[in-house]
Amino acid sequence: MNGSSTGVTPCCGPDPAGQPAFEPARSGGAEGRSARIGVLICACGPEMRERLDFEALASFTSSLEAVGHVETHPAWCLRPGLRRLREIVADKGIERFVVAGCSYRTHRHIFAAALERCGLNPYLFEIANIKEQCAAVHPEGAMARAMGQMAMAVAQVAALQPLEPIFVQCEPRALVIGGSLSGLIAAETLAGAGIETILVEQADSLGGSLRGSRGTWLGIDPGGDVEQRAAALRSNSLITIHLSSNLVRVAGGPGQFMVTVRTPDGDKDLRVGAIVLATGSRPALPRGVYGHDGKRVRTQEEFMDLLHGEARVPETPLSIVMIQCVGSRDANLPYCSRVCCHDAVRNAIEARKKWPDTQVAILFRDLEMSCLTERDVKHALEAGVTFHRYDPASPPKIQGQRVSVVDTLLGRRVEILFDLLVLSVGRIPGEGTAGAARVLNIDTDAYGFVPEPVVRLRPQEYAGRGIYVTGSAHWPASPEEASYQAFEMASRAAMVLQRGWLSTRPIVATVDESRCIGCGLCVSMCGFGAISVEQTEKGRKATVQTILCKGCGTCTAGCPVFAISSAFYSDAQIAPAIRAAVMP
Amino acid sequence: MSKKFVGFVCEWGGYTAADLAGFRRVAYPADLRTIRVECTGRIDPVWMLDALIEGAEGAIIIGCPMGDSRHEVGNFRAQERTRWVAKGLALVGERPDRVRAAFLPSEDAEGYARTVEEFSRLLDTLGPIDRSEKGMERLRALREVFASEKIRWLVGQGQNITEDADAFREKIPPLELDARIEEVLRDEYRRVRVLRGLRREPMSVVALATYLELPAQTVMRDVSDLIGIGRLAIEGHADPPLFREVAR
Known about the structure:
The complex is a heterodimer. Chain A is α/β, with parallel strands linked by helices. A five-stranded parallel β-sheet of chain A has the order 9-8-7-13-24, with helices on both faces. In chain A, helix 6 (142-158) packs antiparallel against helix 17 (571-581). By secondary structure, chain B is an alpha/beta fold. Chain B has helices at 14-23, 45-54, 74-91, 109-126, 133-146, 149-163, 174-200, 205-212, 216-228; strands at 5-10, 32-37, 58-63, 99-103, 232-235, 242-245. The model of chain B has no long low-confidence stretch (mean pLDDT 92). The interface between A and B is large, with 56 and 56 residues.
């Protein structure tokens, strides 16, 4: 069975109206027909034939309890072998199988699929690896090991329970947290796929840090873009927008989240199937660095108001000096924010265009121009922007109207007079990120961003949990990257929500509530947040969100009162295997 | 080559490395019997002791390197649990290195073969486990210790305490925790022996102390503790009183 789970309605299969992916009805294993075990011995490979005596193996396994049929074949995994398997199932009524041959990792799928085609449960099956892990590596003693491993597999299969894939229905609704560029695009994409979408923004208007921004990025005008998109969302009947609102509570799991959104009109309880986290990033405001006053010393964002603003300019600056990596890539924010170099170069070009008589100099540490933006450096040089590289050990110094810096490329000190100083500061996570991550129970890194935990082993980890992290919530992203990510993540979410159900393999932990003492130790052991302790009529009991459970069994082996069991790797199944391990 | 030992391997680490050793024909001793699990985190301390009780001379866990497990924390738990079982074995007079946890990358076929071979050779030098009645009774008692709620709770909580903090927001240094683990294991082992002795037949404290080869005062204290938590009761009206285990 699927075990207990709160907030998640396990259903027996895909929505009948939808397209069923597989046939859920299958024979139940032990009931009715014979529970005897068929042992299929594979005789392929030179070492196998040389080091193993198949007749002796067959007669040994026939003598084991519960074995109903033993047969040797040159290659069970090929078509003739699989055809023979079908005959055995039909003629002998055998439903549990042990294949003695190649690795479980390489051959499980072949036999599981074949058993399913025969109408059998694919989880009443185990492989005794007598090839890679026996004949191939044991010039001596292979026979004894093969017998041992086969006896163990037989003992295990005798104790197996039929398992069915787990399905969870999905609420056809999505929640987007954050009205940043990526949030807007995600909401638009989801609504475009016909999915009801709720957009929650902490601030009182949409657009995030790009709101009111001017200028272009690879031909896009992000500021104008977010305004247009926000306007389109407001008139979209599938989208509900909550401004000045926060996510305050999340329960349930993927497909069946129960969320509470705190809005100015009170708390709203919603049921959603997927959550998109798009809380964006914002500039780390400098505190008094280089005499920052927002007028004569500005950040790039503040400079853009001047550059693209409507004639609020007191007078045309004659010399502009931009300093990169201010308060960034230091002990406090040791990472590169990736977008600021391009912002500076782009603004420098714009400034030269707008005020042809103005000198523009950029003082940089490493010019980090990603992909296509690299060519803008050339454009900037052509436009007459000067570049000076400085060493972080001796940063530029300001003396009155003069900036003094050691140019490490020229190898000498350069002094520039300026009347406008522009600071490129690093970016930090959007204001909503910390709160949302806490409510969603996902980890933030040392700086508050939400990176994917183990990209190499489990890419898109959070998507599996029904949470789709996108844009600068991950890491500072350019508007272009944020757009791509938002589109991609929203599309992924839309695929699941349109299908209407989620499924997972049945190798999961289940809790025996009559034994559970509600101590919560399992909660601290689970690396996937799949277990929680809930108040039930019978007291505090652990419950498993089966859709989140990866079946590792860490909770099972740690439960003080043996109240948890792991399907396919239960104590009832391993104990006989341990006994059989030393048998022959 | 009659000795055998059990290898608990995870599907993603040990089992994969073993497969690779097979593809590359890296030979190693055949006295290993492997049991595949989803993750080394699934391996119950009780399983390792079961293997020794059932006749294996040792039990080895082979899993993924720390921080490289697709199940996040399973291998950390397996390592911690193995450490406890090893301490338990030392406590009952058995060699602690009969249980071992090794963690290696799934692509390290040679490492797998070497690990198995080294362990096999180590077990050869250790010789067979004492399978006399007394020796087996000690192992069975130890298994019962590791099946007890108290010890299982501590095994699980131990790592939380050293890594996070306990209920008093105190971080206990791992070495200090080790000392406490040994103390708790020793107490629990003694109590389990008392319970098991009285499970065989109701006895007086003096008779039990003789049977367990323990000072009568120690046994008396354990008996009264166990009465206090409802695990023992007085049997009949004999003088001196006989104690029996309360069926649960």
